[in-house]
């Protein structure tokens, strides 16, 4: 309750907020660590999922996350994690310079990219770090990273999970662990944590993280 930062999680079309609990990422962010600043992890059941009310107009999806964050009194400094369809709710929020929130970073697992950006969005996203996670069996891995590199030009990294499907974090327990590790490291600064003569950025299984959220 005393957290000054929040991480908002938007699930994919075949899943619910509980999926994030299964991966272990929510517990990882909630557990005490060496990081001094507490983080409030908020997993959302998107409209029409797990008994939540569906949106009456598709256009409302572009402001849903902003309105939700305000309704739950989320801290003004946030990071966002989305998977697949969840990106259609997350990306407009991340790119909106007038949301009333400051987005410190964006993690997407094959998140939707075909979302109209608000006016001024590209300039507002230019400093937002973006970690893009894919499974190598996902056909979108060949095209979508290029879109994200243009949308988030200042700091962008693509991590590919081997032998993993579209929801890469659900390949197996190792993938879930590595995903949770990457999100935690990214949220707490990622490569920016490399201080005091440390020779390498954080590693999560076979994956090295080179970027992190900028709070």
Automatic annotation (TrEMBL):
Q: Name one Pfam family in it.
A: Abhydrolase_6
Q: Which InterPro entries match?
A: AB_hydrolase_1, AB_hydrolase_fold
Q: Which Gene3D superfamilies does this chain map to?
A: alpha/beta hydrolase
Keywords associated with the record = Cytoplasm
Keyword Cytoplasm among record annotations: yes
Chief localisation class = cytoplasm
* Ranges of residues in domain AB hydrolase-1: 7-184
Cellular location of this protein?
A: Cytoplasm
Q: What does UniProt give as GO cellular component?
A: cytoplasm
Q: Which family does it belong to?
A: Belongs to the AB hydrolase superfamily. ABHD14 family.
Q: What is this protein called?
A: AB hydrolase-1 domain-containing protein
